[in-house]
Amino acid sequence: MKDATQAQKSLRLALVGFSNADIAAMLQTTPQVVSQNLYEERRKVAGKKPVRKTRAAPAE
Fold this sequence. Notes:
Helix content: 55-70%
Shape: elongated
Number of strands: 0
């Protein structure tokens, strides 16, 4: 797992049963970041593009 991204590591650890809090502690990040990483990696595996929120242009 040395060359794996943080998101890939998060997914692998989640698949073997670690909680987001445990994964966050191992990777020295927050559970919220782990949650986002898992969401994006699962979408990649499913062949879907991650949905990115964009700000709407202000109404004139």
